[in-house]
Specification:
The protein is an alpha+beta fold. The protein has 2 domains: 31 residues; 96 residues, Alpha-Beta Plaits (2-Layer Sandwich), CATH 3.30.70.3270. The chain is 29% helix and 17% strand. The protein has 4 helices and 5 strands; from the N terminus they run αβαββαββα. It has a 3-stranded antiparallel sheet with strand order 2-3-5. The structure holds iron/sulfur cluster (SF4) (2 copies). The site of one iron/sulfur cluster (SF4) has 14 residues, from α3.
Amino acid sequence: MNGYFHDLYRGSKSLLSGMLVTLKAIFQPTVTVQYPREKIEVTPNIRGHLTMVLDPETHTHRCIVCNRCAKECPSSCIDLSGVKEEGVKGRVLSRYVYNYTSCSLCGNCVDVCPTKAIEFSCEYELASFSKEDFIFDLLKEVKKSQ
Ligand code: SF4
Ligand code: SF4
């Protein structure tokens, strides 16, 4: 009989503790966001896919085709090349393709870039049935946004 009352006491105590937590939560501000109708502001430190930085002065990318990002990438996600142009010192970027499907977002490429030409985007709304949609031609994106 003693055991019965002991269990009853423990059960009621646990039930009340649970209800107390619920009661407290009722009066706290709502944290649920009705995505996609509502969106929260994401932290600027978010690591989305790689993107090229548009220089505010020149309105173009800052890549000097040094190839460091591609060399440092542990997953071979970056494929870039440059061409010689008359009157231009060094090479001019002609291709910069980034494979997001194998990127681990380690940040090596961003860290080694001497001109801060690439960064992580804040884009998180990406969905597709095709893997090809996650292979980005960053140079094309730059040209589109110019
Ligand atoms: S974040 Fe890491 S894995 Fe992704 S492209 Fe850069 S170096 Fe490669
Ligand atoms: S490290 Fe920077 S400057 Fe060098 S190739 Fe990569 S993006 Fe261009």
